[in-house]
Specification:
The protein is α+β, with helices and mostly antiparallel strands. It is built from 19 helices and 28 strands. The chain folds into four domains: 160 residues, Penicillin Amidohydrolase, domain 1; 203 residues, Glutamine Phosphoribosylpyrophosphate, subunit 1, domain 1; 66 residues, Penicillin G acylase, beta-roll domain, CATH 2.30.120.10; 119 residues, Penicillin amidase (Acylase) alpha subunit, N-terminal domain. The strands form four sheets. It has a ten-stranded mixed beta sheet with strand order 19-17-16-8-7-6-5-2-1-28. Helix 5 packs across helix 7 and helix 9 runs antiparallel to helix 10. The N terminus is likely disordered.
Length: 716
């Protein structure tokens, strides 16, 4: 029972104040909707409707595809205008010219990679229809800024007007020169696979409680910049798509329609190689002869604080391998990237969204215009499908590990010039297990027991086993959540998606706890008692998660497991403690630090780890994928400053292909980054509670949650 007193009085005051605030907000929203309904003109043949729901999701009804693309550009400008204009400015390689020296490194990278020139070339190679769609999308952005100038920062308007070429430059910068070609690899002259993470599931009717296929989409990306997802519904004659696009992109990358849906995950694919060249005279050795570089000069303008400009010139060299990213006295390093001759990736995605069955969907995939990403698919006919998609070079020699090193560049024997065909890629349809999964692991564990076998494919195509999964424990957790389950409902899938249990704890604590109790000092024994009571999760109220996570991260560099991954125990290894004395010493040191900083060894996880978006900050629920959490939140910071989530679960969708389709979604950080938007961070509390929102796809459902209706004419 609560005691009466000043504290209770204040609590009551704030309770009723909150209720009245909600009442007035609801009333104001209702008045706005009624006002818009009666004051806006009725839709006509040349007008596109945008219905905005209370989560800031635009439901766009275009009279044709051109009007749809224009309205989608308008909607993205409304939700992310400041960010999008900056991103397009950077994709031009003109960020430093617009906003100063902080953008110089980005501009140099973009121009070194040839993005602006290639974007123009790609634009000219687009089909006339797709070229028009790009221009309509750009026009929507330009028109929104022109009609709502006060909503866009003056500083970013210098990037106007946006053109279709800017969109293709943005595509190249993001997909080809960040996802596919890790900038760290360029800087370090090494072959580093694509970075990032995602979970994806496709569940067949035999594994589904409703006897309908279910799809889980769950990308993990940074919570900022061009990695943000934008949720939308796109409807036009023959089109009814719901899903998400990376911000600034004109098509949905993860989506479903009335018949089917798909998601993507980053795959371990070698789509960028660094060749080491031997310099001689003014060129480089090539098949026993000296070959000259192709050269040109690039310029970057840099805006100064006083408004004046300086100009930086730098030379760009290109060998037969690709752009020269570094040069020493006797060596140069050439970067070769797949897919720079494949300009139709956006068109392929657009057509995939119009497919009505797997045959039509695969017809579009077979174009191989998208250079990487696994695809997981499910449909209303109960089919599920997995593809290790990508442009895989045909190599004359070597395995995966060989091609992660510097490649000798003096001979044509190592230079790849062709790609594997679609039929040569790892692919599965309707496995007997009834499910497919990917968590950035190699294709061989797309279901379990494995059906795809690495021995049936070239040794260089992908890593040979689960051992090379970037987060092997998360991959094993994903497989366990599926194979150990009976028939799953949509809600069951959601519950498993939000599992924050750390698989590493199951592998370690049965050894660590009793050994610590027997051998450790008092602080270590106290730590063991906390870990024994811990629920082995990273929920906000989990006590012991902070201690265990800091211990694991500290011990990581010294080596944790005594038993490495073993193909005879694929889901139970790695396991064991490599060095019990080191493990105990680290535990005692971490325990002392935790007690000093937080006053208690069993401090709740959410007291130390926060999710912050804009001005909103709430306790985090979710943990590190590499420790085995399926609910992924990666953190930055130091123990004395506490930790903040910077990466992890972003757009989440669970779709059941019943008739009609049932779906729930969540865009964790919200669907807008514009200042003062009510939709910035408004979905964080749902994520913290492990909840998702129902999808509203019919006009009746949307009208019941309508906040704003806009009519966009072709000439507006």
């Amino acid at each position: 029972m609560k005691a009466f007193g000043l504290g209770y009085a204040w609590e009551s005051f704030f309770h009723y104040a909150k209720q009245w605030t909600r009442f007035f907000a609801l009333a104001l929203s209702t008045i706005l909707v009624i006002s818009l309904t009666f004051t806006m003109p009725m839709s006509s043949a040349n007008q596109t409707e945008i219905f905005w729901d209370n989560w800031g999701v635009p439901h766009i009804y275009g009279t044709d595809n051109n009007s749809l693309f224009k309205a989608f550009g308008w909607a993205q400008a409304k939700s992310h205008g400041n960010l999008i204009l900056r991103l397009y400015g950077q994709a031009r390689g003109r960020g430093a010219e617009y906003w100063g020296i902080d953008y110089l490194e980005s501009d140099q990278y973009v121009k070194l990679m040839g993005v602006p020139d290639r974007a123009q070339q790609w634009y000219e190679e687009q089909n006339p229809e797709m070229r028009q769609y790009l221009e309509e999308f750009a026009t929507g952005i330009n028109h929104y800024v022109a009609q709502h100038p006060d909503e866009i920062d003056e500083a970013v308007k210098v990037a106007l007007p946006i053109t279709g070429t800017d969109i293709l430059a943005h595509l190249q910068r993001v997909i080809y020169f960040h996802f596919l070609t890790n900038p760290q690899a360029v800087a370090s002259r090494t072959n580093i696979p694509p970075q990032g993470g995602s979970n994806g599931w496709a569940i067949a009717p035999q594994k589904s409680l409703s006897n309908q296929a279910i799809l889980l989409a769950n990308p993990h990306l940074p919570w900022s910049d061009f990695y943000l997802w934008y949720e939308a519904q796109l409807t036009a004659p023959g089109v009814n798509l719901y899903g998400a696009a990376l911000v600034g992109m004109p098509v949905l990358s993860i989506a479903f329609n009335d018949n089917l849906g798909w998601t993507v995950t980053l795959n371990p694919i070698d789509g960028a190689d660094v060749y080491q060249l031997t310099l001689k005279d003014d060129g480089y050795l090539w098949d026993g002869k000296v070959k000259n570089f192709e050269t040109k000069t690039e310029k970057v303008k840099i805006r100064q604080a006083n408004g004046s400009y300086t100009e930086l010139e730098f030379g760009v060299k290109q060998s037969i391998h690709g752009i020269i990213i570094a040069q020493e006295q006797e060596k140069a390093y050439g970067l070769r990237v797949v897919g720079l001759d494949r300009p139709h990736g956006l068109e392929q995605l657009w057509k995939m969204g119009q497919a009505k069955n797997l045959e039509q969907f695969e017809k579009e995939l077979k174009q191989l215009q998208i250079p990487l990403f696994n695809f997981l698919y499910a449909d209303q006919k109960g089919k599920i499908f997995y593809l290790f998609n990508g442009l895989i070079p045909k190599r004359s020699q070597g395995d995966w590990n060989d091609w992660q090193k510097l490649i000798p560049g003096e001979t044509s024997e190592t230079l790849w010039t062709e790609y594997h065909s679609y039929k040569e890629l790892p692919r599965l349809v309707n496995p007997k297990t009834g499910w497919l999964q990917n968590t950035n692991d190699p294709p061989w564990t797309s279901t379990f027991p494995s059906i795809l076998n690495a021995k049936d494919y070239p040794a260089y195509l992908a890593p040979s086993s689960l051992e090379y999964a970037p987060n092997i424990l998360r991959s094993q957790q994903s497989i366990n959540l599926l194979k150990d389950s009976n028939k799953l409902s949509l809600e069951d899938v959601i519950d498993r998606k939000f599992s924050s249990k750390l698989l590493m704890a199951d592998r370690i604590l049965e050894i660590l706890i009793p050994t610590t109790k027997a051998l450790a000092n008092p602080i270590g024994i106290e730590a063991a008692e906390v870990l024994e009571k811990w629920d082995r999760k990273t929920d906000a109220d989990s006590r012991g998660a902070v201690l265990f996570t800091l211990w694991a991260l500290t011990l990581e560099s010294k080596g944790i497991f005594s038993r490495p991954w073993n193909p005879t125990e694929p889901l139970d290894t790695p396991a064991g403690l490599a060095d019990i004395n080191t493990a105990l010493g680290v535990l005692e040191g971490v325990a002392a630090q935790v007690k000093l900083l937080y006053g208690s060894l069993d401090v709740p996880w959410g007291d130390v780890v926060k999710m912050r978006v804009g001005d909103k900050e709430i306790p985090a629920t979710g943990g590190l994928g590499k420790l085995g959490s399926f609910r992924v939140l990666n953190i930055t910071g130091t123990p004395d400053e506490k930790f903040q989530v910077v990466f992890g679960d972003s757009f989440i969708a669970v779709v059941e292909f019943s008739d009609p389709v049932q779906a729930k979604v969540l865009n964790v950080y919200g669907n807008s980054t514009q200042p003062n938007s009510p939709n910035m961070a408004d979905q964080l509390p749902l994520y913290a509670d492990g909840k998702m929102r129902p999808v509203w796809r019919t006009k009746k459902e949307i009208q019941e949650h309508l906040v704003l209706q806009e009519l966009i004419s072709r000439n507006s």
